[in-house]
Specification:
This protein is 34% helix and 17% strand. Helix 6 packs parallel to helix 7. The chain binds iron/sulfur cluster. Iron/sulfur cluster binds next to loops.
Length: 318
């Protein structure tokens, strides 16, 4: 499978079948916490990165192979910003024609200032955009956006989308210790959220290898502060437990690449997900991936994570 992965366990979306519409890593932001590493180059160009028909054919194949109840949501998410695929709107409607399952889009929301980008997402049942900062200064520091996407455009886009959109709008706030977990920065975010009026606010913590080596999740106090300041509709979303569905893979090498391209993982977690194969087969596959340059390891939080090779993690702070 090239474009479809999982289902994978998700706290918010149950067993979520992922659709990845773009190559690693294609994004108009370069977040300090990005688990996919550095965005090189930063791009805001929309393209049909992969043919729509091919993506939908794969989705249909995977949906047919699963029994009712095995998948809860179909989610556009993956190797960067999914709305950079110029057929994202038609892809969403294409999936809706294939299944009655609800469709979600995990996006940074950066292009929602454009009417056509808002129109594209109207078919989704839930849209999960990001808002990590309540000021332009902090936005530039955390998300390091493409120059076309100013903070004013980001916020105006989210407000305009909320006004027109009838589905669930769940805004994600990724908390980074010392950057957006202080009282002042959280009050700034809360003030902007009041203008956006999302249905829910999901507080996320960086748990997979962040692009920047100095990124840390907030401590307990920072988390409590965020919950208190961001209000009743805010909740903390910890990573879900459970295994990735790898039943469609014959080769352990392909299964590993599919996982670590979208979810860089520490070795223990990776091995837990690869129980369909023997430890010896996994050892051999990891060695092969490493020596062929298709996979790499990156050290963060004192742990070694496996990641796909095109991802770039600077070892030093910038
Ligand atoms: S976290 Fe998402 S929005 Fe930020 S750089 Fe990574 S892919 Fe792009």
């Amino acid at each position: 499978m090239k474009y479809v992965f999982g289902p994978v366990p998700s706290r918010r979306l149950g067993q979520s079948l992922g659709i990845d519409t773009i190559p690693l890593k294609t994004c108009n932001w370069n977040c300090v916490y990005c688990q996919l590493g550095r965005t090189i180059p930063l791009t805001n160009e929309r393209r049909d990165y992969y043919p729509r028909e091919e993506i939908l054919k794969e989705v249909e194949q995977v949906l047919t192979a699963h029994k009712p109840g095995e998948i809860d949501w179909v989610t556009f998410v993956g190797s960067g910003e999914p709305t950079l695929h110029s057929s994202i709107g038609r892809l969403i409607w294409g999936v809706k024609e294939l299944t009655k399952l609800p469709v979600a889009v995990i996006t940074n929301g950066a292009r929602l200032y454009l009417p056509e980008a808002r129109e594209d997402l109207t078919g989704a049942d839930a849209v999960l955009p990001s808002l990590d900062a309540g000021s332009a200064r902090l936005y530039r520091k955390i998300n390091r956006p493409h120059p076309d996407i100013t903070y004013e455009r980001l916020v105006d886009g989210l407000i305009a989308f909320r006004e027109a959109y009838r589905g669930k709008l769940w805004v994600e706030v990724m908390l980074v210790r010392g950057l957006n977990d202080t009282e002042e920065t959280l009050h700034e975010i809360a003030a902007v959220l009041e203008r956006i009026r999302p249905d829910e606010v999901h507080i996320n913590l960086p748990t997979r290898p962040p692009d920047e080596i100095w990124v840390q999740p907030p401590d307990e106090e920072g988390l409590m502060r965020a919950l208190a300041i961001l209000g009743d509709i805010a909740r903390v979303v910890h990573p879900a437990e459970g295994s990735f569905d790898l039943s469609g893979f014959e080769s352990v090498v392909d299964a590993i690449v599919s996982i670590i391209t979208r979810h860089p993982m520490c070795e223990d977690e990776l091995r837990r997900n690869l129980e369909l194969w023997t430890p010896g087969q996994v050892d051999k596959a990891l060695e092969q991936l490493s020596s062929s340059g298709r996979a790499q390891t990156v050290e963060r939080y004192g742990t070694r994570f496996w990641s796909a090779s095109p991802a770039h993690y600077p070892e030093r702070t910038t």
